[in-house]
Design goal:
TIM Barrel, two-stranded antiparallel ribbon, 17% strand, binds indole-3-glycerol phosphate, phosphoribosylanthranilate isomerase activity, EC 4.1.1.48, tryptophan biosynthesis, amino-acid biosynthesis
């Protein structure tokens, strides 16, 4: 059983519990006025989605004691275009409280990074103040991906549709995804390879699609490499969570996008 299978098995339990308990997140801030798509499409530098990530199954504890709202504020002040909050508890040690706290602190689009398999998680993301949700092609079949994509849209949430290979990309096209995240990390083996972005970005020919390169990006050279491949945004967790100087690290990653 792969780690993704294990995570999804736990998610099914979590969703059952959630349905029994009901939702109780109330964000006091206005939502839905932040569009990650619009802000990234209008930027002429490579935009960064900076991630609040305490731990991961591949790395163990990364920065377990940080204060999510402080971390997110630093991201905002350092020029991040959006903030991602990992809310999975069993494998990433995050929570929806982390996301709700971040919502109170920043005025940027917030991505709820979780393994979404059911509408109730989308409602929860909405209530907690997220603007964008993640849908992972590998996690569900095409029909279900389509349903959840449409449900998120009906709730005025944007969707980052995550792909890792050609088959996933077909799903993205079928679903009509406007924002495609190319994950350089294989969720089954944890191997990271930036060539994934180079290979898949080439196959996305619609200029309206926003391409985000995800995972394993640590240096300016790497950011340049994925930008050259066609990414207009990058999703960065670990290197920012471990950085002693977030402002410096972010400014190194925000490079001019080469004109194509
Ligand atoms: O910490 P990194 O290597 O910079 O990666 C960030 C982000 O891409 C990664 O956390 C991620 C991408 N897709 C996911 C799906 C689930 C959980 C986590 C992820």
């Amino acid at each position: 059983m792969t780690i993704l299978d294990q995570i999804l098995e736990k998610k099914i339990e979590e969703v059952q519990t959630l349905k029994l308990a009901g939702l109780n997140y109330k964000s006091s801030l206005p939502k839905n006025e932040f569009s990650l798509y619009d802000s990234f499409k209008h930027s002429d530098a490579l935009s960064v989605i900076a991630e609040v990530k305490r731990a991961s199954p591949s790395k163990g504890d990364i920065n377990i004691g940080m204060e999510p709202s402080e971390q997110a504020k630093t991201y905002e002040l350092s020029g991040a275009g959006a903030v991602s909050v990992l809310t999975d508890q069993p494998f990433f040690k995050g929570s929806m409280d982390d996301l709700a706290a971040v919502r109170q602190t920043i005025d940027l689009p917030i991505l709820n990074k979780d393994f979404i398999i059911d509408e109730i998680q989308i409602d929860r993301a909405h209530q907690a103040g997220a603007n964008v949700i993640l849908l992972i092609a590998k996690a569900l079949d095409r029909e279900r991906l389509k349903e959840l994509y449409q449900y998120a849209q009906s709730q005025n949430l944007e969707v980052l549709f995550e792909v890792h290979n050609e088959e996933d990309l077909e799903d993205a096209f079928e679903v009509g995804a406007k924002i495609i995240g190319i994950n350089n990390r294989d969720l089954k083996t944890f191997q990271v390879n930036l060539e994934t972005t180079e290979r898949l970005a080439k196959q996305i020919t619609n200029p309206d699609t926003l391409i985000i390169s995800e995972s394993g990006i640590k240096t300016r050279e790497e950011a340049k490499r994925v930008a050259k491949a066609g990414a207009e945004g990058i999703l960065v967790g670990e290197s920012l969570m471990l950085s002693g100087d977030v402002t410096q690290t972010l400014s190194e990653l925000k490079i001019e996008v080469p004109s194509v």
